[in-house]
Fold:
Amino acid sequence: MIEKIVAGDFETNSYIISNQGKCIIVDPGLDFKFYADSIKTQYEVVAIFLTHGHVDHIDGIGYFDVPIYIHNKEKAFLKDKTLSLYNVFGMEPSYEYDKLKIIEVEDNQLIELIGYSFKVLHTPGHTRGSVCYYFNDKLISGDTLFCNSVGRTDFPTGDMHSLRLSLKRLSALPEHTVVYPGHEAKTTIKNEKKNNPFMN
Structure:
């Protein structure tokens, strides 16, 4: 089961992936304290998956004492306030870096949690260490792929050429794959191949 929470002023999609009373939280965003206590009363939170390290996708990590999965090229974002854009927006993290339980992931790695097998897909472009999580014909795409659009590439470590290569990789997934993006509405690979100008 996947539940969406739209968090903070950037309207970031945070997701709760649950099974049999346990859950994984994906990209807990800004103002996430409001949701954290409620989530903890409903589920045993076992992990946090991060698609990338921007402020609006990471700020809620400090409200959960669980392992945090992030690509090894993106780990520095959790510590560097320029990379994570905290400095750009004049904000301070709501977490302490030294207290985080960070687990670095790599491309094609399989993560077995809560009865699911998640495949890590390294999809650089929006940032150098952006990843998607693929499982059960579902893709958690972060800011790599949106409905009929893509994430911007003008922030630190962003690169449009890399993003296009990542999108080409995602286009090879089964067309019925449901895409859960970091902002706005969900979509499918079939729809994106047909209507997203960046996928062609």
